[in-house]
Amino acid sequence: MDASNTLLRAFVSDEMSVGSDEQRLIGLINRMRLFAPLNVVGGAEAVLRAIVGIALKPSIELRQLAKEALSKNLDPDPLLAQLPFFRGDF
Question: What is the pLDDT at residue 89?
Answer without folding.
Answer: 47
